[in-house]
Amino acid sequence: MHLQKKSSWFLALLTLIAVISVFYLMDSTKQSKEDITLPVDTGQKAAIQSVTKEVSSPSSLFEETRLQVSNERNQIRQKLTQKITSDESFVEEKNMASMEIETLNKEESTEAILEKQIKSLGFPDALVRIEGEDVSVTVMAKEVSKYQANEIIYLVKEEYEDANVQVKFGANNY
Q: Residue 174 — very low, low, confident or very high, per pLDDT cuts 50/70/90?
């Protein structure tokens, strides 16, 4: 009976995370047509920079990719949750499934944080994908700058220390 309570709480938590994720995606789509004011940390002083996001095909591609990845992860979560709640699964299998769900949630939140931080650097849009130790960052930009790439790599390393980071510029490189 105690295990069922834990499973219920866990399922409720996953549902809450899914709802928040959908809200975040819907909210970011609504904001993409407006001016957004983001805080930017410039070393010792915090400045506020106004960034105008334009809706363009690369940004739509990024949103579509985010939605697709979110759907895939939700399907994985459902399968893992079924394994956790199943009476046929062993305790070790349930623990592994729980750890996998936790990893998915951590990756998802880290990606969202990194995307916001990269956008705060003045880029119109960014797409971050974490797959194990590999982190792929695609940024919409017209020119390639080593300084910008290093700045992005530094941001990723701050959030995800052991990452192998690959930075691509322009939606065509995605």
A: very low
User: Does 1 or 48 have the greater pLDDT score?
Assistant: 1
d(CA 166, CA 94): 34
User: Residue 45: pLDDT above 70?
Assistant: no
Query: Mean of the pLDDT values across residues 138-149?
Result: 83
List beta partners, residue 169.
139
pLDDT computed for residue 24 by the predictor = 64
Instruction: Find, among 63, 47, 45, the residue nearest to 55 by Cα.
Output: 63
- The neighbouring-strand residues paired with 39 are 48
List CB contacts of 104: < 8 A, sequence separation 6 or more: 73, 76, 77
Question: 134-139 and 35-42: which strand pairing?
Answer: unpaired
- Note the helical H segments in the chain: 2-31, 57-85, 91-119, 146-159
Report d(CA 153, CA 127) in Å as an integer: 13
Query: In sequence order, which residues have a C-beta less than 8 Å from that of residue 40 and are 6 or more positions away?
Result: 46, 47, 48, 49, 120, 121, 122
pTM of the model: 0.62
Please name the residue that has the structure tokens 């994720």: 21
